[in-house]
């Protein structure tokens, strides 16, 4: 029987463990709940496995494994040191430097965050955006919602907003993106023009992982609007500035894991299993 060690991650990891057990794998887990002693990780990491499965994303700060369910910290460097030579490591969005460290230690590194995973994850993220809007008092129907960027998450979010009866405005850099958004039924504006004169809106969903909304820009944005940050660090919204200005800003990270952990785990499990 093949054995897998799951290390870190949000609630998706709990469902991932069940996914592999249903398929006949034996599983161990570490950093999946509060109170687990670090010594347990040191012990488990020394054993041979068919694979060591890290979360998506592997890390948020570039220094430690993403372990939101655990009250400890597992530095990437320590994980590299503890993994035995020849270990097969699977992770989502594995940082290049970390991957190089693992390879130098004799490990095999595989990234299960495939194009299909990204696409399906974007759809779940968009559904999560609607949930966050509703939970924060912004009913999508009839609401003017700005979506910044036009990558996969932005496109999926636009589709979800239109289906919910919202009045979306896409702010993007490329003219092709604006034409595509307009063809789908949204208003569209160049991002640079929007940042100069934001105008009125009920909510804003940022999908761009680069600072767009500085304190200066936020001062000209509606004070009663809802601001959602779905991008990764360093984030498009200056969250500290938003707090100082009294803006309602929500860090809406890992929405699939927060709202749809089982469905997200099925997606990740299938992708990871295909690499074993």
Topology:
Blueprint: E1 3-7, H1 11-22, E2 26-30, H2 38-44, E3 51-53, H3 76-82, E4 88-91, H4 96-104, E5 108-111, H5 115-135, E6 144-148, H6 152-163, E7 167-172, H7 175-183, E8 187-190, H8 191-196, E9 203-206, H9 215-219, E10 226-229, H10 239-244, E11 248-251, H11 255-259, H12 261-273
Parallel strand pairs: 1-2, 1-3, 3-4, 4-5, 6-7, 6-9, 7-8, 9-10, 10-11
Helix pairs in contact: 1-12, 5-6, 5-12
Largest sheet: 6 strands, parallel
Number of helices: 12
**Overall CATH architecture of the largest domain:** 3-Layer(aba) Sandwich
Give the mean pLDDT. 96
Percent of sequence in beta strands: 15-25%
**What's the helical proportion of residues?**
40-55%
- CATH superfamily of the largest domain, please? NAD(P)-binding Rossmann-like Domain
> Looking across the biggest beta sheet, what order are the strands in?
8-7-6-9-10-11
| Contiguous uncertain segments of 5+ residues | none
Class from helix and strand fractions: alpha/beta
Shape designation: elongated
Our measurement of the CA-to-CA distance between the termini, rounded to an integer number of angstroms, reads 13 Å
Helix and strand string, N-terminal first?
A: EHEHEHEHEHEHEHEHEHEHEHH
Q: Tell me the total number of β-strands.
A: 11
Domain module count: 2
Name of the top-level CATH class of the largest domain: Alpha Beta
C-alpha Rg (nearest Å): 20 Å
Query: What do we call the CATH topology of the largest domain?
Result: Rossmann fold
């Amino acid at each position: 029987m093949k054995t897998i060690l799951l290390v870190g991650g949000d609630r998706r990891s709990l469902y991932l463990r069940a996914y592999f057990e249903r398929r006949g794998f034996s599983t161990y887990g570490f950093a999946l709940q509060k109170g687990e002693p670090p010594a347990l990780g040191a012990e488990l990491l020394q054993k041979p496995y068919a694979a060591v499965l890290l979360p998506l994303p592997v890390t948020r700060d570039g220094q430690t494994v993403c372990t939101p369910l655990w009250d400890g910290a597992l530095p990437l460097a320590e994980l590299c040191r503890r993994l035995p030579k020849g270990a097969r490591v699977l992770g989502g969005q594995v940082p290049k430097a970390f991957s190089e460290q693992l390879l130098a230690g004799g490990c095999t590194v595989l990234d299960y965050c495939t194009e299909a995973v990204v696409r399906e994850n974007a759809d779940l993220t968009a559904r999560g955006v609607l949930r966050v809007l509703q939970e924060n008092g912004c009913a999508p129907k009839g609401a003017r919602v700005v979506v910044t960027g036009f990558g996969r998450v932005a496109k999926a979010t636009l589709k979800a907003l239109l289906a919910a009866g919202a009045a979306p405005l896409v702010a993007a850099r490329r003219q092709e993106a604006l034409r595509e958004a307009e063809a789908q039924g949204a208003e569209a504006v160049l991002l640079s023009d929007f940042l100069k004169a934001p105008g009125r809106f009920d909510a804003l969903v940022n999908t761009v992982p680069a600072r767009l909304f500085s304190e200066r820009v936020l001062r000209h944005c509606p004070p009663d609007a809802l601001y959602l940050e779905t991008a990764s660090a360093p984030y498009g919204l200056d969250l500290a500035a938003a707090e100082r200005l009294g803006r309602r800003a929500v860090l809406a990270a890992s929405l699939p894991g927060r709202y749809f952990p089982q469905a997200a785990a099925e997606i990740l499990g299938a992708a990871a299993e295909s690499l074993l």
